[in-house]
Amino acid sequence: MKKPALILALLSVYIITAFAWWIYAHITNAKIITAQSMELLDLLPHRATNDLHEATEQGMFTDTIDMKKYLAFNYPQLTIQFMSEADPMYNYAIMAKQEAIAEIERNYKRKIWMYGLEGTVIAIILFWGILLIYRSLQNRVTLNKQQSNFLLSITHELKTPIASIKLYLETLLKRQNMDKEQTTLILQNSLSDITRLRDLVENLLTAAQLDSHKFNLSFQHTNFSDLVVQTVNKFSLPRNLQNRIKLRVEPELYANVDSIAFEMIITNLLSNAIKYSPVDKDVILELSAQTSTIKLCVIDYGKGINEEDRKSLFQKFYRAEDENTRKSKGTGLGLFIVKTLVTLHQASITYTENTPNGSIFEISIQKHATQNIIS
Description:
This protein is of the alpha+beta class. It folds into 2 domains: about 1-135, no CATH class; about 220-365, Heat Shock Protein 90 (2-Layer Sandwich), CATH 3.30.565. The protein is about 60% helix and about 15% strand. A 5-stranded mixed sheet has the order 4-6-7-9-8, with helices on one face. Strands 1-2 form a two-stranded antiparallel ribbon. It has a two-stranded antiparallel ribbon with strand order 3-5. It is elongated and about 140 Å long.
């Protein structure tokens, strides 16, 4: 990031300097042109006086009216003032019109305004262009880092259960005379690791479909209370977490949802809550009715999320920890999937700190009546 950022900074300084020099050169040129125009206007009465004098000597004029017409035709920037009524054709003064002087000044101001406006527009475009390039560069670096972390993470997530299953199977092959209790324990542990692999693959497929906008939802009028209870039981029973997950569910709440999608949402939120909570702390899932919405809260008493990490909480691949030294499992896809699926339901999800410590994820979704509604 340092080298591209330095190149971008040097290029930006060069562009801004060149642009400032362009503005300065045009303004200076406008000043020079204005000064030259004023000088020419000052010299013009002398030339017009000589022309009128020669024309008068040649008898081209019969009266002052002819002289005024001649001057207006050949020198429209000038005006003539006759000094003597007795011999006006030889006693006159020629001078620049105030309108001509004012026109030169207006032209100068017009050019300054034009250069100023052009400069402002170009400066804004340059600023936004440089800012967009910098943000794009920063996002690319961040994405590369996240993808690198994801590869490290997914390697670990795949390697650990595969190695564990391999060890269990080898144990069964080598020790075929084990008692039933030991065999059952090994098989249960193997099934747990297989479930973990299945969940990982489902998350990867779901994230890919969501990213390519190919995840289709099927909305149905659903007993949301039953769906939540069934999902929690399906999640907790294979993992032996019945005693850690506490349910506070208000019955008979209905919503228009995709059951499979919301099962993923609840499963990912519970998985995160369990993962980042101490083993002696409960995870609470609350479901309650508001005026026009249903509120679903997943509450844990873990370490919480730092202020600086909250803005990137729902980004794909994002994890607050360094993948090389991380202690917890995960791929950084769970909350991305949750956020995207919640948005597709036209619902909202928010994060708040728990007291005294921990996290609260709250989903608000539109409530529907108990009678059937065609989606």
